[in-house]
């Protein structure tokens, strides 16, 4: 057995502890990087982000290398200046990932990125971990699509294997007459296509799990998520489902973290059907929008937990301290939000809720762009939901 094999033989032997004072390099400098850097700075780490946008959200609270994500020279500079590397979005260029693995310490590895960048690989990995996904079929031609639609019935969902997010790269096929157009449209992405059976879910849930290189696993309480136009609108915690379902969702997320050998965070999105069955929809190997509630509502936030996990520190307690509803602030919500912020929030006082506004420092408030979020802490989630309704900021 070689030295390397011996080291790899026990997870504990391979675990490396990066102590505060060290510099964490982040591929990507958006809001997730910003919140990772803020939480990690409180632990005593330094941060440097690589992002093409000057004065990116993370660049405002950490150092920044301004360059494209596929710029190998810039990635090399990031490797030189950091003691450990992580990423805050999953579409990391494979060549850059490989180069960083070679030149630097990337505890999350490239395998997890490789798996979660591709829907088919991701589904197979989830199934291999013993967790259910919606029935699916790879489709390489219109004939195969026709056969798969006949098998699953309509509606069903055609998705690109790579590159889709926030509802992009998806087509809900509602009648057989849409098959040709759906195939032609998504086939332009020049990636594999996958047809999924449409799960008639009662609720959408998500659980964020963290795993350290030592193999310690912790899960955050399940969030109940409400999307509008395929973009996350609300995360409600505790999720309004039976305790049994909450525990089961956490158990499945822990199983996926273990099965995929995750280091860092894995966000697991699930569908809950009327008969109480859970199916995994998709994974994200990073902090997740549906975990922003943890910033004030849990003993440890997802961002702090991410830093702890990649640096090999003991993971923090994930207990929920208070009910909370997280509401996203998109570009179109900025004006009414800022208007309300000009006066004392009497609605919050009357309802006895404590809204915490977080803004990401993005310079352009584009329609549908994630600009910030509000964590509405309350004695119960109904009071938090009442505040959101009464502010009129999110009238749909
Ligand atoms: N992000 C990455 N994957 C999903 C999300 N939400 C975050 C990351 C990324 C930022 O969104 O933090 O850097 C990009 O936001 P925008 O508005 O510039 O497209």
User: Count of DSSP E strands?
Assistant: 17
The CATH first-level class of the largest domain comes to Alpha Beta
Quote the average pLDDT: 94
CATH topology of the largest domain: D-amino Acid Aminotransferase, Chain A, domain 1
Our count of helices gives 15
- Tell me the Rg in angstroms: 21 Å
How many structural domains does the protein architecture include?
3
pLDDT under 50 segments (min length 5)? 1-12
Q: State the end-to-end CA separation.
A: 62 Å
Summarize the entry for a quick read.
This protein is an alpha+beta fold and 396 residues long. The protein has helices at 3-9, 11-14, 31-43, 72-81, 94-103, 111-116, 119-128, 142-152, 179-187, 243-259, 294-297, 302-311, 334-341, 346-351, 381-391, and strands spanning 23-27, 46-51, 63-66, 84-87, 136-139, 156-160, 170-173, 193-197, 201-211, 217-219, 223-228, 231-237, 264-273, 278-284, 324-330, 354-359, 370-377.
Structure characteristics:
binds 5-aminoimidazole ribonucleotide; Rossmann fold; 396 residues; 3 domains; PurT/PurK_preATP-grasp; purine biosynthesis; D-amino Acid Aminotransferase, Chain A, domain 1; four-stranded parallel sheet; nine-stranded antiparallel sheet; nucleotide-binding; 15 helices; alpha+beta; Dna Ligase, domain 1; disordered N terminus; 17 strands; 5-(carboxyamino)imidazole ribonucleotide synthase activity
């Amino acid at each position: 057995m070689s030295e390397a094999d011996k080291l790899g033989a026990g997870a504990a032997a391979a675990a490396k502890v990066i102590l505060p004072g060290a510099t964490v390099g982040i591929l990507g400098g958006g809001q997730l990087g910003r919140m990772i850097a803020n939480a990690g700075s409180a632990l005593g780490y330094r941060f440097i982000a690589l992002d093409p946008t000057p004065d990116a959200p993370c660049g405002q609270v950490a150092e920044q290398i301004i360059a494209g994500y596929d710029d190998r020279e810039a990635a090399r500079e990031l490797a030189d200046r950091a003691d450990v590397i992580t990423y805050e979005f999953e579409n990391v260029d494979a060549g850059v990932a490989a180069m960083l693995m070679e030149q630097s310490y990337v505890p999350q590895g490239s395998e997890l990125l490789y798996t979660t960048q591709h829907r088919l690989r991701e589904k197979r990995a989830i199934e291999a971990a013993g967790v259910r996904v919606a029935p699916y079929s790879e489709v390489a031609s219109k004939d195969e699509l026709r056969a798969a639609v006949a098998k699953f019935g309509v509606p069903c969902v055609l998705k690109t294997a790579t590159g889709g997010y926030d509802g992009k790269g998806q087509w809900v096929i509602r009648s057989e007459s849409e098959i040709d157009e759906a195939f032609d449209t998504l086939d332009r992405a020049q990636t594999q296509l996958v047809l999924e059976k449409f799960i008639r879910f009662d609720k959408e849930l998500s659980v964020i799990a963290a795993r350290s290189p030592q193999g310690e696993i912790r899960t955050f309480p399940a969030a109940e998520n409400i999307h509008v136009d395929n973009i996350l609108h609300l995360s409600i915690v505790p999720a309004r489902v039976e305790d049994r379902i909450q525990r089961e969702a956490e158990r499945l997320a822990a199983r996926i973290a273990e099965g995929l050998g995750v280091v860092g965070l894995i966000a697991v999105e699930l569908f809950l059907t009327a008969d109480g069955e859970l199916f995994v929809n998709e994974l994200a190997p990073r902090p997740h929008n549906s975990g922003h509630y943890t910033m004030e509502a849990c003993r440890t936030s997802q961002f702090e937990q991410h830093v702890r996990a990649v640096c090999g520190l003991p993971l923090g307690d994930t207990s929920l301290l208070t009910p909370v509803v997280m509401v996203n602030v998109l570009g179109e919500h900025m004006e009414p939000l800022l208007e309300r912020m000009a006066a004392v929030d009497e609605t919050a006082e009357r309802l006895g809720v404590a809204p915490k506004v977080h803004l990401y420092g993005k310079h352009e408030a584009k329609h549908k762009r994630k600009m910030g979020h509000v964590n509405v802490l309350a004695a119960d989630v109904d009071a938090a939901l009442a505040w959101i309704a009464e502010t009129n900021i999110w009238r749909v």
